[in-house]
Amino acid sequence: MVLEWVEARLRDGELSVGDKLPAERALAELFEISRASVREGIRVLDALGLVSSEVGSGPRSGATVVSEPSHALAWALRMHVATQALPMADIVDMRVLLETQSMKSAGRSDPAVRDEICGRARQILQRMDEGVSEELFHALDAEFHVTLGELSGNVVMVTILTSLRTAVVGYVAEGVARIEDWPKLRRRLQAQHWEILEAATRGDHAAAAELLREHILDFQAAVAS
């Protein structure tokens, strides 16, 4: 009931990102349900990445409308990956499809926007070159790939890419732990990152897309062996 009410208000513009939901008591009276039922509805909205809840009193307390679609998608995918209902090979294929298509679409975006995105990607790689921890390296790796995905100019594509990357964090960590010479693989992956970025920066998006495909499959082969 609470979910349907929020959806309707978002659709008709009565609610928007940044707005506060009515207090629990007001919603309970509106729907003639218990406050516990209202809290459960808000918890679901929180899990879906649609509200952010703060306890206590003051201007920050209560539930605020947000928009974090990748949060909900990532958790759903992560749980289904854990059940093995979603084969990792299929997820890798989807990554290849989305990331290469994002790169191929880059030629249609504004040159200034492309330069800004490539600049951020370069800063990420420079930080990865600084000998960061393994955990941070993987986090920056994911950020690099999602940043390149922004070249597509497609918000839905970037959201799905973000979700896919988040969903396989555990799988990646387990796979890397089995690799005998991780430092060697890390250097190879980083060299591939730079090749991809340089191709994208000079506007050779077809070459960058092919390098992305080879890079993703190379890493998958390494962690799966």
Automatic annotation (TrEMBL):
InterPro entries: GntR_C, TF_FadR/GntR_C, Tscrpt_reg_HTH_GntR, WH-like_DNA-bd_sf, WH_DNA-bd_sf. Gene3D superfamilies: GntR ligand-binding domain-like, Winged helix-like DNA-binding domain superfamily/Winged helix DNA-binding domain. GO terms for molecular function: DNA binding; DNA-binding transcription factor activity. Pfam families: FCD, GntR. Residues 1-68 form the HTH gntR-type domain. Keywords: DNA-binding, Transcription, Transcription regulation. The keyword Metal-binding does not apply. It comes from the Bacteria. Transmembrane segments: none annotated. PROSITE patterns: HTH_GNTR. PANTHER family: GLUCONATE OPERON TRANSCRIPTIONAL REPRESSOR, TRANSCRIPTIONAL REGULATOR, GNTR FAMILY. This is Lactate-responsive regulator LldR in Actinobacteria, GntR family. It comes from Kocuria palustris PEL.
